Structure formats: structure tokens, C-alpha cells
Amino acid sequence: MAARARLVLASASPRRLALLRQIGVEPDAVIAADVDESELPGELPRDYVLRVALAKAAVLRARETASLVLAADTAVACGRRILPKTEDETAARLCLELMSGRAHRVFSGVALAFMAIALVSATGVLLWKKWDWLAVAAFVTSVPQLVAWLDDS
Predict the structure, then answer these.
(1) How confident is the model at residue 87 (pLDDT cuts 50, 70, 90)?
(2) Active site (annotated) includes residue 73
(3) Which of 86, 93, 88 is nearest to 137 (CA)?
(4) CA dihedral 86, 152, 53, 124 (to 10 degrees)
(5) How far from each other are the two terminal CA atoms of the chain, in whole angstroms?
(6) How would you label 54-79 residue by residue, b for 16+ Cβ within 10 Å and e otherwise?
(7) If pLDDT is split at 50, 70 and 90, which confidence band does 54 have?
(8) What is the CA angle 66-70-71, rounded to 5?
(9) Cβ atoms of residues 119 and 73 within 8 Å
(10) What pLDDT is attached to residue 142?
(11) Of 55 and 113, which is predicted with more confidence?
(12) Which pLDDT value is given to residue 143?
């Protein structure tokens, strides 16, 4: 019987690990991939998440040569504009203002690296209602996890 390849999750996101555990998958290692996640000029959201996921997988694949490396990236976009990762409550509010009453898309890119690299992408569309900005201010102030939620979205 051949030995099973190690599964390495290339992520620092507790949410990605939790999602894998929900489907009964426990990675052998969880290692954050240090890659530049800056957007390229004119880069579309779908292309961005695929490029970043592939870069994460490639970085760890170079170190984990006998392992199966799973990497992913997610971005929220309004039109062609990729929303920034929310670092604080002000950024979270700005993102909520931009999304209020507008359709936005959540793009996810997934890279699985072993002997070859396969890419899979998925998108979803959500429609946010017009927000009552006093309610948003109270929500953001009272729930600091919103910042983390927007980062993982």
C-alpha cells in the first residue's frame, strides 16, 4: 500500500481550517504562505484570486515537495473593484457603504499543488439592502468581529 501524501493547508485563516474540518478533512500541517497580495494594474477579481491562490501554493510546494498543498484566496468585489482587506472599523464601514444596495461578488480561487497544479474557481452573488447608517455604526462598533468577517469573506 502506498503511503498517503501529507496535506498542507497554505493558510493562516482559521475559517479555512474550520471549513476543511466540517467536511472531515484534517490537514497534516497548516502553514501561512508569505506572498505579495497586491493587485496588479487592471487585474480582474477572478484573475486576482486565482493568481494569489496559485502563488501561495507554489511557495509552499517549493518547500513541501512531497506534500499535497491546498491554497485559496477570496476577495469581495463591486463591479471590477476589489474591496480592500479590512484592517479596522473605518475600513469596514467604507466597505459596507460601498456595498449598500449594490450587488457584489465574492470570488474564491483555489490551487491544489502536487505533481501538477490544478485551479478551480467559484463565484457567488449577494445583494445587500440599503443600510440604515446609524444601525451600521452601532453594528460595527458593537461587533469588532465584523472586521475579521469582511477579511475572510
Answers:
(1) confident
(2) yes
(3) 93
(4) -110
(5) 40
(6) bbbbbbbbeebeebbbbbbbbbbbbe
(7) confident
(8) 130
(9) no
(10) 43
(11) 55
(12) 44
- Burial (CB count <10 Å: 0-12, 13-18, 19+), residue 114: middle
Q: Using CA atoms, how far apart are residues 83 and 43, in angstroms rounded to an integer?
A: 13
In this predicted structure, the answer to whether residue 105 has a pLDDT above a threshold of 90 is no
Mean of per-residue pLDDT scores for the chain: 77
Gap between the Cα atoms of 153 and 147, Å rounded: 10
Please give the Cα distance from 112 to 119 (Å, whole number): 7
Cβ-based neighbours of 69, under 8 Å, separated by 6 or more: 8, 10, 57, 60, 61, 111, 112, 113, 114
Residue of 73, 88, 132, 152 marked active site: 73
| CA triple 86-51-4, angle to 5 deg | 105
Residue with cell 494569489: 52
Q: Which residue has the cell 477579511?
A: 151
Which residues neighbour 146 within 8 Å (Cβ) at sequence distance 6 or greater?
86, 89, 92, 139, 140
pLDDT at 114: 77
* DSSP SS3 for 49: helix
Q: Is the pLDDT assigned to residue 37 strictly greater than 60?
A: yes
